[in-house]
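Service request form, structural biology core

Requester: graduate student, group of Dr. S.
Request type: structure prediction, single chain
Budget code: on file
Notes: please return the result as structure tokens.

Sequence provided:
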Amino acid sequence: MKLIKQKQINPRKMWPNEAANFTPWLAENISELGEKIGMELEVVGQEVSVGPYSADILAKDINTEAYVVIENQLEKTNHDHLGKSITYASALGAKTIVWIATDFTEEHKKALDWLNDNTNEDLAFWGIQLELWQISEDTASMRLNVVSTPSTNVKTIKNKTNNESESRNIQLSFWTKFRDKLQATKKIPSLQTPQPQYWYDVRLGRSGITLSNICNTQKSIVGVRVYISSKVADVYYPALEARKAEINKALGCEPDWNPNPAARDKTITYVHQTVLSDPNKVEEALDWLVEQTLIFHRVFSKEVKDIKI
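Core staff response, request fulfilled:
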């Protein structure tokens, strides 16, 4: 291993203009931000109209379906952007505000912390500092540093409402039973440990593409989902879509092929309506999901293996 000396550079060297360059790039790579704040984000729109103004990015938390407003600023924070962020969130009904800037003043950091401590417990405010570090002449590394977060203050405790706790308990119970049933088939080795969350990943043998199955407690829906990350979407999705008819025939169903043009993450999803509060319906849903997971795993493992990268 070699240590590489890096030099911090102005992000505008890569993204000269916020609206024309950075916002479209972030929309296409929204998973980078999602990983940082612990959300599975889906872009709803860019430059979304709010009266005479426009929100840089409107996204949705797939787990809760709550809106997320993302305001970008490739400079030091100012009152104008803070005010706009709150205005956009109120007009669009967003539950989370993410303010991205290259430099946060202490006053604005304190303002976000104060909002997290004193606003409705359903609201969350994130301050993310963007840095760009040059590695070589034509290579740079992006860093997203959290300067204000709702997860380190009193709101974390408040947010553990009964509904959220019940939802997570349902998901943990569902994925534990799912893992046990899938493991009993002995057809897929090395399954992950269940977590109280919206998704459960089953590997397909290639990096960047998984079966990221879903358990939506809000809609009482479970589903098998091929999740293609932005890093490989340009290669995998077109190759798979070109064989859509053959793949659907092998699956024995017609899943929803979502090219997700507003973001680079792509999905292929097949869902099942159930009643997660009914033990009998849950068992039925588990058997359905195990069966479909085995089919999707068999079909897509072969398909992605045949794609030349």
